[in-house]
Amino acid sequence: MSKITRRTCMTLALAAAAGGCAEFDPIFGALTPGPASDSLNGLAKAKGLRFGSCLGTGPSSAPGGAADRRGSQFDDANLRTLMTSQCGMLVPENELKWYSLRKSPTTFDFRRADKLVDFAEANGMAIRGHTLLWNRAQWFPDWVANYDFGPTPRAEAERMLRRHIETVCGRYGKRIFAYDVINETVMPETGELAETVFTKYLGPDVVDIAFHTAREAAPHAQLVYNDYMGWEPGGGKHRAGVLKLLERMKKNDVPVDALGVQSHIGSNNNPGGAPGFAEARETEWRKFLDEVVGMNLDLVVTEFDVHDKDVPGDIPTRDRAVADLGRAYLDLMLSYPRLRYVMAWGLVDKYSWLQNRPPRADGLPKRPCPYDENYRPKLLREAVANAFRAAPTRPSMKAG
Q1: What is the pLDDT of residue 16?
Q2: What is the pTM of this model?
Q3: Vertex 102, ends 149 and 71: CA angle to 5°?
């Protein structure tokens, strides 16, 4: 890690009740004391872990996406207070995605992302970068599909990809400690790479180019491949495709450090299930995770929430089912010492991305987050806290 500057120490000191330049972690670097010890991050930190959440600055402008009815999270002072009181980490929800940054082939608009990075830094939170390449055609800005790659399309595709990664990493430097270099390039139906303009011209080399460029542009950063392969039985092709991709990367000396496990659980794997369901789920999922860590890769929970779309019952019943499923999942994930942090994909129910997805049959709002729409802790918050309390302790690292 780099030397901590006087300016950085002053910023961290202002953001915390005490200093904060003394603590050092090989993943996170210099750390402030952060939220109180009974916060979610405080409980995680006691075990050598960290906890954080995504945060957005306004309605999503995803290409062809459904209208985002959530409003601006960042403008909600109560949510910002909850973030600073509970989280030691922040990841922009959409602000670093191509459709947010790249309105044209020649321009970058960092205003929304800058707002989040500045907020996180001012409050002593480590910052993840999501994502340098979401390699699915529907998530690129519209101009990408119509772009003229010229007489040497492979060279132009590589130039475009390298320029994007170098520009983003160069802007934020060591302010961002980890990047989801590529997000979701394995198709769950086939286990093969998604077809995009980049795979059209670069083939599987798109992965190698992206990771090598990220390592060159951000040599300090944890580099992550991020995907949503689920823990339920039946996801074998997706998991096998991810393992195939990771094995290829390791064989080719591609600088990947960790697998990001999105962890959007629930909905199609409700509590209970058929006889033997839970046992099969754990057996298959552990086999997959064992293969990942067997490649000398870390694990990261990048986007945790518990979808209750198909969970029947009144609110107390739903909340208990969500909490129980969330606790079972986190207990399993946290049993792996190579997992060092957990990111929620939203703290408060009303701002969850899942509110914009297909509705519950009863039409009621979903309750997938640790806090309800009035910022009150729910059973899921208790489940996350207890999972951290029960987690094996990771080695503590202090600056010498």
Answers
A1: 38
A2: 0.91
A3: 145
